[in-house]
Amino acid sequence: MYINRIHLKQFRNYVNQIVDFTASKTIILGNNAQGKSNLLEAMQLLSTLRSPRVSRDRDLVKNGEPTAEITAICRRSLSEVELVMRLRREGRRSLGLNGVNLTRHLDFLGQVNAVCFSSLDLDLVRGSPESRRDWLDHVLIQLEPVYLSFLQQYNQVLRQRNALLKGIRQGKLSNDPTQMAAWDAQLVATGTRITRRRSRLVQRLTPIAQKWHSSISGGSELLNIVYSPKFQFQDADTIEAIHGAFLAQIQVKAIAEYHQGTSLVGPHRDEVNLTINQTPAKEYGSQGQQRTLVLALKLAELELIESITGEPPLLLLDDVLAELDLQRQNYLLNAIGDRVQTIITTTHLGAFDGGWLNSAQILQVENGSVKFQ
Ligand SMILES: Nc1ncnc2c1ncn2[C@@H]1O[C@H](COP(=O)(O)OP(=O)(O)O)[C@@H](O)[C@H]1O
Ligand SMILES: [Mg+2]
After folding, report:
1. CA of 332 to the centre of ligand 1 (A)
2. Does position 219 have pLDDT exceeding 90, yes or no?
3. What residues have CB less than 8 Å from 295, skipping those under 6 apart?
4. Gyration radius of the chain over CA positions
5. Is the pLDDT score of 349 beyond 80?
6. Which residues line ligand 1 (CB under 6 A)?
7. In this structure, are 281 and 332 located in the same domain?
8. Element at 69 (helix H, strand E)
């Protein structure tokens, strides 16, 4: 898919800006804090309804304004679509598709698919398990929009169960076993949907990431990705068996949960283990090697989304390309070719290969205003 045009009104530091994309590669050039990442953030909002940076819409609306609007015109293989997202400082957002207001927000998903690689993604290797879980969630939302509502349902159950555990620990609420059993059952039912999907996604991503990783690193290193939930199950297990294993693990942890006043079993605690030659990736290798690993994960994400949706997603490279050496840059750019619309932000053009610089569209951003060169 391609984004032909994006129009930002009162979004972050943009007042009223139309950007037309005219080449398969666009470079957005600008000093720090001018609005480069804001532009990519708008595209990510269209692809997952979530910002990678903030959780409240009010942060996305230009300071002092009541509403913001993102409009995009996208080309997919069979059709052209117009997407509109209205964000409010106070109140809910509204979404439109081809001029029709969508009452079900999930219907908006799946129109824009995007893979983003920013410096935040180095957390995939070095950061907490949460960043790895978020990565899987971000891919799943795009591949199966209903996953977003599964996630919201799980988080709601989790919040309420945690509030109960905390209240009991503080002596403010009584411990009613029937009530707790009801929350356990809901946690298990909603949590299993998340854990199983993430685990299956990892199984699909792993061979693709291994292929990319071995070709970028020259074949001597073996990458492995293992989804490791807080309870054990096999894919072939029946849903009842998986629920049973989940529930049994909650019971094992029951005393600790009352003691700590929080839920200890479930997808919010699952880990995704990345290893290279059987050593945890964060302990393995230099920053350059860790960057190679993240690059392999991103290329795997791109290939999987393309193979499932039938169209290449957008590739958003936020301040990372110039950080790769020329050899890895060229590797990446050759791997994606002209098929994939790629939007690259950078503070300087000097680090790029002149060959493909010539074919790219170059835009300059200054203080929330885009200049076409
Ligand atoms: N809600 C907002 N209203 C107005 N300006 C904002 C808002 N949110 C962020 N900004 C401004 O956007 C700029 C940062 O933009 P960003 O795209 O992250 O920069 P960069 O070009 O370095 O990627 C900062 O100047 C910041 O003050
Ligand atoms: Mg930035």
Report:
1. 28
2. no
3. 117, 212, 216, 324, 328, 332
4. 22
5. yes
6. 12-13, 30, 32-38, 59, 61-63
7. no
8. strand 67-75
54's CB contacts (< 8 A; 6+ apart) are: 60
Of 9, 10, 11, 13, the residue with max ligand 1 atoms within 8 A of its CB, to mutate for a pocket test, comes to 13
- Of the listed ligands, the closest to the CA of 28 is 1
pLDDT tens per residue, range 186-218: 999 999 999 999 999 999 999 999 999 998 888
Q: What is the pLDDT of residue 85?
A: 98
Residues 358 and 219 in one domain: no
Both 142 and 222 in one domain: the answer is yes
The CATH number for 49's domain is: 3.40.50.300
Ligand 1: which atom is nearest the Cα of residue 60? 1
Helices (H), the chain: 36-48, 123-126, 129-143, 146-169, 177-217, 239-252, 254-260, 287-309, 326-336, 354-357
- Mean pLDDT for all residues in the chain: 94
Question: Where residue 353 falls among pLDDT bands split at 50, 70, 90?
Answer: confident
pTM passes above 0.85: yes
